[in-house]
Design goal:
Helices cover about 80% and strands about 0% of the residues. By secondary structure, the protein is mainly alpha-helical.
Length: about 80
Amino acid sequence: MALHTIDSAELEKMLEKASCRGAEMALANVGLTDDQAIHDIRDLRDLLDTFKDIKRSIIKSAASLITAAVLGLIAASVWFHK
């Protein structure tokens, strides 16, 4: 039984071809093979960016509300202890 050796260039070419096929299969599995796929990806990125902005805004608002509530409680306790 003879062993077949592969040089690095041939191996790299085979790996590149296999990775391209794998990427194409992965995109096909999620339905991103048509001409609108690039727009779908951009829409998803925009949606994620918007979600991150909203989440950041909610966290800032909650922090502001908690800070105002704590300061209000401190002010009320100082006022009633006079």
